[in-house]
Amino acid sequence: MSEDLPPSGAAREGAADDVRASDADADAWATACAEDLQAEKARRRAEYGTPPGSAAEELKKLVDAVAEKLSGVQSPLLGAVAGPAAQQVVRQVVQQAKDAVEPVIERNPDVFDHLAAAGNELLAAYRSAVQAQEGRWTGRDEQHDPRDRGERRDGGDDAGPGERIDLD
Prior knowledge:
Blueprint: H1 9-48, H2 55-72, H3 79-107, H4 109-138, H5 146-149
Helix pairs in contact: 2-3, 2-4
Protein backbone atom coordinates (compact mmCIF):
# COMPACT_ATOMS: atom_id res chain seq x y z
CA MET A 1 0.00 0.00 0.00
CA SER A 2 2.85 2.39 0.62
CA GLU A 3 3.68 2.24 -3.09
CA ASP A 4 0.32 3.85 -3.93
CA LEU A 5 0.95 6.98 -1.84
CA PRO A 6 2.49 9.98 -3.57
CA PRO A 7 5.99 10.87 -2.40
CA SER A 8 6.39 13.47 0.31
CA GLY A 9 7.70 17.00 -0.46
CA ALA A 10 11.23 16.16 0.68
CA ALA A 11 11.26 13.03 -1.45
CA ARG A 12 10.10 15.04 -4.47
CA GLU A 13 12.86 17.61 -3.97
CA GLY A 14 15.43 14.81 -3.62
CA ALA A 15 14.21 13.25 -6.86
CA ALA A 16 14.41 16.63 -8.64
CA ASP A 17 17.98 17.10 -7.34
CA ASP A 18 18.88 13.64 -8.64
CA VAL A 19 17.48 14.52 -12.08
CA ARG A 20 19.42 17.83 -12.11
CA ALA A 21 22.57 16.05 -10.95
CA SER A 22 22.23 13.38 -13.62
CA ASP A 23 21.65 16.13 -16.25
CA ALA A 24 24.76 17.93 -15.01
CA ASP A 25 26.71 14.66 -15.12
CA ALA A 26 25.48 13.98 -18.66
CA ASP A 27 26.44 17.51 -19.70
CA ALA A 28 29.85 17.16 -18.08
CA TRP A 29 30.33 13.82 -19.80
CA ALA A 30 29.30 15.25 -23.18
CA THR A 31 31.60 18.23 -22.67
CA ALA A 32 34.53 16.00 -21.71
CA CYS A 33 33.93 13.78 -24.73
CA ALA A 34 33.76 16.77 -27.06
CA GLU A 35 37.00 18.16 -25.61
CA ASP A 36 38.73 14.80 -26.01
CA LEU A 37 37.50 14.52 -29.60
CA GLN A 38 38.77 18.02 -30.42
CA ALA A 39 42.15 17.23 -28.83
CA GLU A 40 42.43 14.00 -30.81
CA LYS A 41 41.53 15.78 -34.05
CA ALA A 42 44.15 18.45 -33.35
CA ARG A 43 46.76 15.78 -32.60
CA ARG A 44 46.00 13.95 -35.84
CA ARG A 45 46.06 17.19 -37.85
CA ALA A 46 49.47 17.98 -36.36
CA GLU A 47 50.79 14.48 -37.07
CA TYR A 48 49.25 13.75 -40.49
CA GLY A 49 48.21 17.17 -41.82
CA THR A 50 44.72 18.19 -42.74
CA PRO A 51 42.58 15.22 -43.75
CA PRO A 52 41.05 15.26 -47.22
CA GLY A 53 37.56 16.69 -47.39
CA SER A 54 34.58 15.25 -49.15
CA ALA A 55 34.75 14.57 -52.86
CA ALA A 56 32.85 17.79 -53.55
CA GLU A 57 35.33 19.85 -51.52
CA GLU A 58 38.26 18.20 -53.25
CA LEU A 59 36.71 18.87 -56.67
CA LYS A 60 36.28 22.53 -55.71
CA LYS A 61 39.96 22.68 -54.71
CA LEU A 62 40.93 21.08 -58.02
CA VAL A 63 38.86 23.56 -60.02
CA ASP A 64 40.41 26.46 -58.10
CA ALA A 65 43.95 25.13 -58.60
CA VAL A 66 43.43 24.57 -62.33
CA ALA A 67 41.85 28.01 -62.70
CA GLU A 68 44.78 29.61 -60.91
CA LYS A 69 47.32 27.79 -63.09
CA LEU A 70 45.50 28.64 -66.32
CA SER A 71 45.15 32.27 -65.35
CA GLY A 72 48.87 32.58 -64.70
CA VAL A 73 50.05 30.91 -67.91
CA GLN A 74 51.92 33.20 -70.30
CA SER A 75 51.22 32.54 -73.97
CA PRO A 76 54.45 32.73 -75.99
CA LEU A 77 52.66 31.57 -79.15
CA LEU A 78 50.53 34.70 -79.46
CA GLY A 79 53.37 37.17 -79.08
CA ALA A 80 53.64 40.34 -77.06
CA VAL A 81 50.75 42.12 -78.79
CA ALA A 82 48.05 39.50 -78.30
CA GLY A 83 49.41 38.28 -74.95
CA PRO A 84 47.40 40.49 -72.57
CA ALA A 85 44.20 40.09 -74.59
CA ALA A 86 44.64 36.31 -74.72
CA GLN A 87 45.25 36.19 -70.98
CA GLN A 88 42.07 38.17 -70.39
CA VAL A 89 40.11 35.72 -72.56
CA VAL A 90 41.59 32.77 -70.66
CA ARG A 91 40.67 34.36 -67.32
CA GLN A 92 37.10 34.95 -68.51
CA VAL A 93 36.72 31.38 -69.74
CA VAL A 94 38.14 30.01 -66.49
CA GLN A 95 35.81 32.20 -64.42
CA GLN A 96 32.81 31.11 -66.48
CA ALA A 97 33.76 27.46 -65.99
CA LYS A 98 34.10 27.99 -62.23
CA ASP A 99 30.76 29.79 -62.11
CA ALA A 100 29.13 26.86 -63.93
CA VAL A 101 30.73 24.10 -61.84
CA GLU A 102 30.48 25.50 -58.31
CA PRO A 103 26.64 25.60 -58.06
CA VAL A 104 26.46 22.01 -59.28
CA ILE A 105 28.98 20.95 -56.64
CA GLU A 106 27.16 22.82 -53.88
CA ARG A 107 23.72 21.47 -54.83
CA ASN A 108 24.85 17.85 -55.13
CA PRO A 109 27.78 17.16 -52.79
CA ASP A 110 26.61 13.59 -52.09
CA VAL A 111 26.69 12.75 -55.80
CA PHE A 112 30.42 13.37 -55.91
CA ASP A 113 30.96 11.17 -52.85
CA HIS A 114 29.02 8.38 -54.59
CA LEU A 115 31.01 8.90 -57.80
CA ALA A 116 34.26 8.70 -55.84
CA ALA A 117 33.13 5.47 -54.16
CA ALA A 118 32.08 4.03 -57.53
CA GLY A 119 35.47 4.98 -58.96
CA ASN A 120 37.20 3.15 -56.10
CA GLU A 121 35.06 0.07 -56.75
CA LEU A 122 35.88 0.17 -60.47
CA LEU A 123 39.56 0.51 -59.66
CA ALA A 124 39.38 -2.50 -57.34
CA ALA A 125 37.60 -4.56 -60.01
CA TYR A 126 40.17 -3.56 -62.64
CA ARG A 127 43.05 -4.37 -60.29
CA SER A 128 41.54 -7.78 -59.57
CA ALA A 129 41.10 -8.52 -63.28
CA VAL A 130 44.66 -7.46 -64.08
CA GLN A 131 46.11 -9.56 -61.27
CA ALA A 132 44.14 -12.59 -62.44
CA GLN A 133 45.34 -12.08 -66.02
CA GLU A 134 48.93 -11.63 -64.89
CA GLY A 135 48.61 -14.85 -62.94
CA ARG A 136 47.53 -16.66 -66.10
CA TRP A 137 50.33 -15.08 -68.13
CA THR A 138 53.07 -15.90 -65.65
CA GLY A 139 51.64 -19.18 -64.38
CA ARG A 140 53.55 -22.30 -65.29
CA ASP A 141 52.19 -25.65 -66.27
CA GLU A 142 53.65 -27.85 -63.57
CA GLN A 143 53.30 -31.07 -65.55
CA HIS A 144 55.49 -29.95 -68.45
CA ASP A 145 57.96 -27.55 -66.84
CA PRO A 146 61.18 -29.41 -65.95
CA ARG A 147 62.32 -26.60 -63.64
CA ASP A 148 59.60 -27.47 -61.16
CA ARG A 149 60.65 -31.12 -60.93
CA GLY A 150 64.39 -30.49 -60.86
CA GLU A 151 64.97 -32.06 -64.31
CA ARG A 152 67.34 -30.70 -66.94
CA ARG A 153 66.14 -29.88 -70.41
CA ASP A 154 69.34 -30.83 -72.14
CA GLY A 155 69.80 -34.07 -70.26
CA GLY A 156 73.35 -33.07 -69.16
CA ASP A 157 75.09 -33.95 -65.93
CA ASP A 158 75.99 -30.42 -64.86
CA ALA A 159 74.45 -29.34 -61.60
CA GLY A 160 74.27 -25.64 -62.61
CA PRO A 161 70.97 -23.82 -62.97
CA GLY A 162 71.57 -22.83 -66.59
CA GLU A 163 70.80 -24.74 -69.76
CA ARG A 164 73.64 -26.11 -71.89
CA ILE A 165 73.82 -24.58 -75.36
CA ASP A 166 75.63 -26.47 -78.10
CA LEU A 167 77.54 -24.00 -80.29
CA ASP A 168 78.68 -26.47 -83.00
